[in-house]
Amino acid sequence: MNITHSISGTGDHAVAVTRVSDTQWHAMEDDRVVGRGDASRRPDGRLFISIDAWHSAVFDRIADAMLTDLRTPLYTVVDEADHDSRSAWERAGFAAARREWGYLVPTDPQVTGLGSPRLPSGVTIVPAGEAEEGPLRALDRVIRDEVEAAAGWRTMPAEVLPRPAGTTVVDASKYTVARHFDQYVGLIRVAPLPRQPRIGLIAVRTDSHRRGIARALLAHALGSLHRSGTASAWAEVSESNAAATALFESIGARRVAATLELVRH
């Protein structure tokens, strides 16, 4: 593509911002890349952008170029504690739309108080890696449709990995499932990352809410991690999700970070 949008000086040398592909922009100074911009579309259709630049003037030039090329609304994600990044995006016209809490979740049942919770009548837990892929995919689709019809999928954690069109369950081995007789009714997805496992999703079908199924799934997943020698896991929860916030805080999870999703309309 290689379309140059602007040339501006940040010091002794000129900086040119060039769109090098549909989703990438480079800021060049003396044939050296001094900043990059990227755009990626989430599965829900929203366009998220990011900028990596050492100098604020370069950040602003890349932002100007991207905003010229891309249609709004545009979204980005920043650590709430990173005041410089937040200020840079606010200069570009972005404003906070939602907050996501980051929790450090203990796995020891002596700390969480979960132990072996009593399961509702007819409910059993299918351990990670043992769920039937067809019913699991069907459950995932039902839950996604229910979320979209209620709060909206945009309220789910902001960091969502790109997926092939129509694919919502990439690795079935990461899912633990709650089964009510012969029907899957709830799931929890845990990514076994090397430094710290991440709870990516915990959800139960609407018609099975308030039966303790989410708590039972969490107890099983955390118990498995504890037995493998893992002391804690990581989870993100939208500030607006009161039920999930209450669940994690009731088992001793500590709120240690916050991520802001910013939007420019």
UniProtKB/TrEMBL annotation:
E.C. numbers: 2.3.1.-
Keywords assigned by UniProt, alphabetized: Acyltransferase, Transferase
GO molecular function, one term: acyltransferase activity
Transmembrane segments: none
UniProt-listed PROSITE patterns: GNAT
Ranges of residues in domain N-acetyltransferase: 123-265
One protein family per Pfam: Acetyltransf_1
InterPro entries given in the database record: Acyl_CoA_acyltransferase (IPR016181), GNAT_dom (IPR000182)
UniProt cross-references to Gene3D superfamilies, sorted A to Z: 3.40.630.30
Keyword field contains Transferase: yes
Name under which the protein is recorded: GNAT family N-acetyltransferase
Species this chain originates from: Streptomyces abikoensis
Lineage of the species this protein comes from: Bacteria, Bacillati, Actinomycetota, Actinomycetes, Kitasatosporales
